[in-house]
Design brief:
mainly alpha; about 0% strand; elongated; about 70% helix
Length: about 70
Amino acid sequence: MNYVPRGPKMPVNMTLSEDLVREARQLTRNLSETVETLLADYVGAERRKRADRERLIDESIRLIQAHQEEFGL
């Protein structure tokens, strides 16, 4: 991931539950930083999950090809 925590910032419009935002503001001094951290964690986890899925697909294809070479169709 190319995430740079202190990199340039971009304004983003979001629609969130008022109650949730109100409660979150009571729990954190910097809501933007908190959301950015959570989003970075999500992006990292999602990239890992997709990479794991791609590896699983590649391994499955390799095993199917090996089975086909040994036993044919």
